[in-house]
Write a structure and sequence with these properties.
Number of helices: 2
Largest sheet: 2 strands, antiparallel
Distance between the termini: 19 Å
Shape: elongated
Radius of gyration: 12 Å
Number of strands: 2
């Protein structure tokens, strides 16, 4: 999971420039083989994060 997050996390440029920070709630399914699917943002601090 850490590998997936580190390879797929994209911090929006607008949020970087504005210094936007906070928690983002995410729901996902981990398959038997470790694959991640059905990723959904549940709660976001900024529309650019969703």
């Amino acid at each position: 999971m850490i590998k997936f997050i580190s390879q797929n996390l994209e911090y929006p440029k607008a949020c970087q420039e504005n210094g936007t920070q906070g928690r983002v709630g995410v729901r996902f399914i981990v398959g038997r083989d470790g694959t991640i699917s059905n990723v959904n943002v549940l709660k976001s601090v900024d529309p650019f994060f969703g």
